[in-house]
Amino acid sequence: MNELQLKYGCNPNQKPARIYMEDGSDLPIEVLCGRPGYINLLDAFNGWQLVSELKKATGLPAATSFKHVSPAGAAVGLPLNEVEKKIYWVEDMGELSPIASAYARARGADRMSSFGDFISLSDKCDLATAKLVKREVSDGIIAPDYDEDALALLKEKKKGNYCVIKVNPDFVPAAIEKKQVFGVTFEQGHNFMEINDSLFENIVTENKKLTDAAKRDLIISLIVLKYTQSNSVCYVKDGQAIGIGAGQQSRIHCTRLAGSKADNWFLRQCPKVLELPFLDNIHRADRDNAIDLYIGEDYMDVLEDGKWEKIFKTKPSVFTKEEKRAWLDKNTDVALGSDAFFPFGDNIERAVRSGVKYVAQPGGSVRDDLVIESANEHDMVMAFTGLRLFHH
Question: Please, what are the averages of pLDDT over each run of 10 residues along the chain (392 residues)?
Fold first, then answer.
């Protein structure tokens, strides 16, 4: 199949819409169920490239949860501990396969942003993964293959309209890519840059102790950034992105946004949050919304009299700033990647509050010395990669 007609473009008024191979060859995908939209396929193709590179770089199955052409989460298939199973709402799912674990992590790190996602898997979708996907609000999935029972289950989702795409894992895009904006054709070389630990050889801080786990997490952060709308910053811990700040005009705003998401991820693991007495009939998405409000500044939206009774069996106490800070101080050894240099040391000062120990950024700012000084003050390990990763 050389082309595929779409429902519409980015918006319903943008018709006609299609994807096609300009050179006359076959598309590298097969639609097994549903009808993908324009944005669905942007998410699918970016997500597929991301997980393919994660698998190649780490040797582990990988998954990502995409929303509006940026990842909401990404992870490799490491086992989940008991707390992670609880905060990702998968404690009832039994033993998860590596690819299912990868998706549970990718979806679970920022469940608010992942709501209605498009999923990309590096490996064949098995039944365990399909069961996870089946019960989440999601627009579609792309993978190199599907087990028969997994595909049958996915085809039941959305009354048979769930978008399921099979991608050719051997497809290599053309060396030159094009797109049109305002009727003008843009052309550039495809970004084939391979991300590996050789990028971390130029460590510019006094502390140069970069562990293997830190190298893995920094690689994950940079691969995520390669497919995240710029400016962007990514926090990673234990093989998964825990905070992604995308599309901000100011880098400090990227760092703050990603840091706040990383903080929320860790706050959800606090016993005070884990033990919230939800009513039995509260759905997962509603629990996610309530937790997000409870741990944030608008906590009275769920604790005010007349409101908490609709969510909780008993009224929880306020999660104070002091309690939150004390818990967040336990988060350590977080890795952070930036798609361009840090122009000021304020990014380092914000990052350290979210447990960042390891940093990878291109370097090249006129204030590099001040940024290095800030990192040294906090005993961080910072590598200058010399590699910018803008994506638009």
Answer: 93 95 94 96 97 97 96 97 95 94 96 94 98 96 98 96 97 95 96 95 96 97 97 97 96 96 97 96 93 95 95 96 97 97 94 97 93 97 97 94
Which is the catalytic residue, given 67, 215, 226, 237?
67
- Quote the CA–CA distance of 390 and 392 in Å, as a whole number: 7
d(CA 241, CA 225): 10
Is-contact 317 290, C-beta < 8 A?
Answer: no
| Per-residue DSSP letter, 203 | B
- Residue 392: inside a domain: no
Domain hosting residue 230, numbered range: 177-267+328-384
Q: What is the DSSP string of 262-273?
A: HHHHHHTTSHHH
Q: Do residue 234 and residue 309 come from a single domain?
A: no
Beta-carbon contacts of residue 193 (< 8 Å; ≥ 6 apart)? 226, 387
Q: What is the pTM of this model?
A: 0.96
Q: What is the dihedral of CA 251, 270, 65, 352, to 10 degrees?
A: 20
The active-site residue out of 159, 283, 321, 392 is 392
The residue from 40, 46, 231, 347 that is catalytic is 231
Sequential DSSP letters for 34-62: S---HHHHHHHHHHHHHHHHHHHHHSS-E
Residue 138 lies in a domain: yes
Domain contains 296 = yes
Which is it for the CA torsion 124, 129, 133, 134, positive or negative? positive
Question: What is the CATH number for 84?
Answer: 3.40.140.20
pLDDT of residue 234: 98
Note if 231 is an active site residue.
Answer: yes
- CATH code (residue 277): 1.10.287
Whether 67 sits among the annotated catalytic residues: the reply is: yes
In the residue annotation, 11 being an active-site residue is answered as no
* Domains held by the chain: number: 3
Tell me the residue type at 307: K
pLDDT reported for residue 1: 85
Is 330 among the residues known to form the active site? no
